[in-house]
Amino acid sequence: MKKFMLALAFTLSFIPYAFASIESAPTSKLKFAASNLGFADRIATQHLQVLPGNISGFSSKPQELANMQEAFRIVEAVINSDEFKQKVINFVNKSGSRSYTNNKGLTNEQVYEAIMAGNEIIGGANTPGQMNFDVSRYVKSWSKVIGYTSPGKSNTIFVNGKFYSGFQPSEISSNVTHEWLHLCGFVHSSASDHDSVPYAVGYIMKDLAAKLLKQGFLN
Ligand SMILES: [Zn+2]
């Protein structure tokens, strides 16, 4: 049994981008430069439309599908808020500098613009300002993987019903954002690369989604 588990762990670690976000891990405490320093104010506010395509695997899970659709509305509201723009641009990593790890050489300002351009590796250039993706639900009860993607091969976000069945819409918003950022070519070096674009922006999404749901609006 021990050998089997080791083999399993080995296999899992080689599935591209399958490490995804383990939502049970504590959300890292996010730090930001003060908004009155004005970094975000120098960048034009963009608009991103959330346009999910084919959503499959939910036929016997209407509540999960409803939560997913609620999450899409949340993502669109959060991503177009000034608070999201401020946090993405003002994000400070754990070394104290205003930048992301694995940032493809982009400044925080350029990361914001890349997100809002909706530039998926596949087809993104033809659909500017749109967040395009498909979702396919599967269940693997022995797996720790919440979701995974194959960037450049498809725009499908595969989500594990084992976790999604218990997720609140704010958690789905965060995970979908994390996975979609992979479809846009942003990576992380491990599941503890909390300062990477998929993780950090996923955390920003989660916090702002919770705030939106609590108070009903964002600035
Ligand atoms: Zn990931």
Question: What do you see in this structure?
Answer:
By secondary structure, the chain is α/β, with parallel strands linked by helices. The chain has a single domain (42-215), classed as Collagenase (Catalytic Domain) (3-Layer(aba) Sandwich). It contains seven helices and six strands. It has helices at 2-13, 62-79, 82-90, 108-117, 161-164, 169-183, 197-215, and strands spanning 31-32, 49-56, 91-92, 130-138, 147-148, 156-160. A four-stranded mixed sheet has the order 2-4-6-5. Strands 1-3 form a two-stranded antiparallel ribbon. Helix 3 (82-90) runs antiparallel to helix 7. The model is unreliable at 1-26 (pLDDT under 50). The structure holds zinc ion (ZN). Zinc ion binds next to helix 6.
Write a compact overview of the structure shown.
The protein is an alpha/beta fold.
